[in-house]
Amino acid sequence: MVKDGYVKYRAIHTPAGATESPLWAQLNEARTRLHDLGLVGEYPGGPGYGNVSVRLGENDFLISGTATGEKRVLTINEYSWVSSFDIEKNTVTTKGPVQASSESMTHGAVYRAFPGAVSVLHIHSRKIFDGMLRDGYPSTPAGAAYGTPEIALAISDCVARLGKPSGVIVMAGHDEGVIAWGPGIDKALDLVLELCTKYKLDAKN
Ligand SMILES: [Zn+2]
C-alpha cells in the first residue's frame, strides 16, 4: 500500500490559532462518519490516511491536520487553514495549530479546477478502489506518483474535464485512494456512502 503522511511539496507553515468556519462542525461530523467506516484512519504501525476539507474562499480551504488519522473525533485545533497553494511551484502555505494534511495539494487541485466544489473528501479503501478501477470510473494516471505536481495537475484536469459540481475519482497511482467532491459537505459524503453500498463495504475496509 502507498501510505499517506509524506509531504512532497514545499509546505510553508505558520503556527497560529484555529481558523473558524461555520461549516467546520458539519465537516468534522462527516469525517467521524468516514472514520467509523474505516475510510479515514491509520494503517497498522503506519501513518494516517484519509482527510477532509471545506472551501473558505476562492483559493483557500480548511483541512484536517497531518497525523490525525487514528483519532475518531477531531477538534478545531486539529485542522489547518490552507491560505494559498501553487501547483506549478509545488508550494502549499498554511496557518493553524497543526500542519495541514500531506495531501493538501490534492484537495487544492479540485478546488482550483472547479469553483463550485465546496468540500473534498479523500478516503482510502481497498474494496472501493479496486471496484472503481474495475468499473472504469474517472481515474488519474497510474504513473502519477502520490504527492507530486503531476498528480495534482492530473486531478485538476480530471475534475475540470468532468465539469460537474460533484463527483468521484479513483487515484490509480495512489493505492486505495479515492476523492469525492461536492457543492456541499452532505453531497460529497453521500457520494462516498453510495460507493460503500455499491462495493458492499459494511465494516472496516
Ligand atoms: Zn491518500
Overview of the molecule:
- This protein has a 9-stranded mixed β-sheet with strand order 1-7-6-5-4-8-11-10-9, with helices on both faces. The protein has a two-stranded antiparallel ribbon with strand order 2-3.
- The chain is globular and about 45 Å long.
- The chain has a single domain, classed as Class II aldolase/adducin N-terminal domain (L-fuculose-1-phosphate Aldolase), CATH 3.40.225.
- With 205 residues, it is α+β, with helices and mostly antiparallel strands.
- Helix content is 29%, strand content 25%.
- The mean pLDDT is 92.
- A hairpin with a 4-residue loop joins strand 6 and strand 7.
- It starts with 9 loop residues before the first strand and ends in a 7-residue tail after the last helix.
- It is built from 5 helices and 11 strands, in the order βαββββββαβαβαββα.
- The longest helix is centred in the last third of the chain and has 14 residues.
- The site of zinc ion (ZN) has 7 residues, from strand 8.
- One of its GO terms (molecular function) is aldehyde-lyase activity.
- One of its GO terms (cellular component) is cytosol.
- This is Class II aldolase and adducin N-terminal domain protein.
Salient structural properties:
binds zinc ion; globular; L-fuculose-1-phosphate Aldolase; two-stranded antiparallel sheet; alpha+beta; 205 residues
